[in-house]
Design brief:
Layout lengths: L11 E5 L8 H14 L4 E5 L5 H5 L13 H5 L5 H4 L1 E2 L5 E4 L8 H4 L9 H15 L9 E5 L6 H9 L2 E7 L4 H18 L5 E10 L4 H14 L3 E7 L2 H5 L7 H4 L4 H21 L1
Parallel strand pairs: 1-5, 1-6, 2-4, 2-5, 6-7, 7-8
Antiparallel strand pairs: 3-4
Helix pairs in contact: 1-12, 6-7
Length: 279
């Protein structure tokens, strides 16, 4: 079974993915989600990384009561997304948190290929729940899936469920090689599991305009992918790096810093692309 059409009700599902670690996936999911919520687009972040950094970065405690039910229960189909989604300190932004128990999902899914679709099925149910219970409530516009830094059953679940992939890419030497691997994975998933999957865009992260290598990487990526690369880049910024330790997105931690402005611009660019697709 494959998903070949939208969810209905204007819901869009974006997987924030890159097989390479340390490129800013979680930072992008948290801060893009916050920026989208700030301009009136309700967002649910699905924390699909066993490290649970997106949950921590949005102030969700690590105790079992604070993170239960979690993405593990959603994938095992013992809890719905609507039940698992937790409010954050940001209006219109909620998160389905992750715990370390998610590392055991490979064993739980050892039964076979049908286990690439639990997240997709949970999202279908969530979209239907929204449609049936929308009166007087803000309906979710975006689901952002924060993927782990590897190609495993969790990442495949995310790509099988998503409408599109948003790729954070660090401005460093091995970035192009990692990007080529991810594009191949996306193409494989599109061929076998999710023919509707596309790349929404590539965002350059940890951009240091004083560094010649940064400009060389940026030039190579833009030459290779053209308009798929967002005009907005995320600068290397100490305040962005600090904010997760306070359990806050950068827009709450320091809304005037360069990193905050960049994520607001990125949200605007994402919305513009979505409007062009809808048109």
């Amino acid at each position: 079974m494959v998903k070949t059409s939208g969810w209905g009700g204007g819901l869009r599902v974006l997987a924030v993915a890159n097989q390479k670690g340390g490129v800013g996936k979680t930072t992008t999911a948290i801060n893009l989600g916050t920026a989208l919520a700030a301009v009136g687009r309700p967002v649910v972040i699905v924390d699909l990384d066993p490290q649970g950094n997106a949950s921590t970065g949005l102030g969700i405690g690590k105790g079992p009561d604070e993170r239960s039910p979690s993405t593990l229960e959603v994938l095992l189909e013992t809890a719905s997304m609507a039940q698992a989604a937790k409010p954050t300190g940001i209006p219109l932004l909620s998160i389905v948190p992750a715990t370390g128990d998610l590392m055991g999902i490979e064993r739980e899914f050892a039964a076979g290929q049908h286990k690439v679709y639990p997240l997709r099925n949970a999202l279908i149910e969530y979209a239907a729940h929204q449609q049936a219970n929308a009166e007087g409530q803000a309906k979710t516009t975006y689901v952002l899936i924060d993927c782990p830094p590897s190609l495993n059953v969790l990442t495949i679940n995310a790509l099988s469920a998503a409408d599109a992939v948003l790729v954070p890419m660090q401005c460093e030497f091995f970035a192009m090689e990692g990007l080529a691997q991810l594009v191949k994975t996306i193409n494989d998933v599109r061929d076998r599991l999710n023919p509707a999957l596309s790349i929404q865009g590539v965002v350059l992260t940890m951009h240091d305009k004083r560094n010649r290598l940064t400009h060389e990487v940026e030039e190579n990526v833009r030459d290779a992918l053209g308009e798929k690369v967002y005009a907005t880049y995320i600068p290397r910024n100490v305040r962005v790096a600090e904010s997760p330790s306070f359990g806050k997105p950068i827009l709450l931690y320091d809304h005037q810093c360069e990193g905050s402005r960049a994520y607001i611009e990125l949200a605007s660019e994402v919305i513009k692309r979505e409007q062009q697709l809808a048109a």
